[in-house]
Amino acid sequence: MELFQYPYMQRALIGALVIGLAAPALGIYLVQRRLALIGDGVGHVALTGVGAGLLLNRSPVLVAVIVATLGAITIELVRARGRTSGDLALALLFYGGIAGGVMLVGLSDSSNANLNAYLFGSLTTISPTDLTTIAVLGAVIGVVMLALRPALFAVCHDEEYARVSGLPVRTLNLLLAVATAVTVTIAMRAVGVLLISALMVVPVATAQQVTRGFRSTMTAAMALGLFAAGGGVYVAANADTAPGASVVLLAIASFLVVAVAGAGWRAVRRRRVPSGPTNAPEPAEVVLR
After folding, report:
1. How far is CA 104 from CA 21, 55, 95, 116, 218, in A?
2. DSSP 215
3. Contact by Cβ (8 Å): 29, 152
4. pLDDT at 89 over 70
5. Which of 54, 72, 162, 274 could be bridged to 154 by S-S, CB 3.0 to 4.6 A?
6. 200: closest CA among 11, 40, 92?
7. pLDDT, tens digit, for every residue of 187-205?
8. Angle (deg, nearest 10), helices 86-107 and 60-81
9. How far is CA 150 from CA 134, 146, 214, 219, in A?
10. Nearest by Cα to 244 from 133, 68, 117, 130
11. Among residues 50, 48, 45, which one has the least CA distance to residue 73?
12. How many whole angstroms separate alpha carbon 205 and alpha carbon 213?
């Protein structure tokens, strides 16, 4: 715990906790819509924004927010119009985003260390300004996801029913796209663009094994994200490992523990169920004539 006396470790912990809450709060809607991997696609587009920011000597995070938002809106519009399948649109984001980011970073004067910081996260290098940005945007994402939970759930569960009910479906879909872009961008410094989808999806998948209702699943997922973020930073500080990888691995370990425990509990319950009476009458014999 001595390491947490240093300001940079305190900033790393606070930033991770904020993202640990915000990412599952958004991720549950993406999982509901079967778009669990969209975070990866948007993350690759955000990497192009980082490269553009480094090349133009502008704030990489700010440029990444703009580029990622445009990319997320584009894929949502393509998906809504049905001209291109969602899988193909995501593939275009994957390949075009990562290629554009690598090319732009190579054209800039920045070293490969800068690229790795955004690919895999670099919590310990978060500045006070970065932490303020993460805290403000993370709080906005969390509040919006909680405040609009009924409407967003309706859109994600049954888009046609939501449209008939009078909900602004397109606006809510675009809101989710923008929220995904913002969440991915602020999480780049924590877990990296290559790992952010895991923090969006894995806590939700873990919570779904032990909860039934949407509200309880969302609450449990946010709690698990908070645990994975805080625990991952603690493990990284003591074991001298990469914070982003530690956070994601702890989230996956939680999923495996819950999955194994759930399977064991179901096996025990099946054994406790009494079998049918042994003296039950045998079925009548059918005589064929």
Report:
1. 32, 7, 14, 14, 38
2. H
3. yes
4. no
5. 162
6. 40
7. 887 777 777 888 889 999 9
8. 160
9. 26, 9, 10, 14
10. 117
11. 45
12. 13
The residues, any chain, with a CB within 8 Å of residue 130's CB and separated by 6 or more, are 11, 15, 61, 189
Furthest-apart CA atoms within the chain: distance in Å: 94
Residue whose tokens read 């500080």: 237
Contact 275, 249 (CB under 8 A): no
pLDDT tens per residue across span 212-261 = 888 899 999 999 999 998 898 888 888 888 888 888 899 999 999 999 98
Angle (deg, nearest 10), helices 196-208 and 243-272: 20
Termini Cα distance of the chain: 86
Q: What is the DSSP string of 257-286?
A: HHHHHHHHHHHHHHHHSPPPPTTPPPPPPP
Q: Which 3 state secondary structure label does DSSP give 91? A: helix
Q: What is the DSSP letter of 5?
A: G
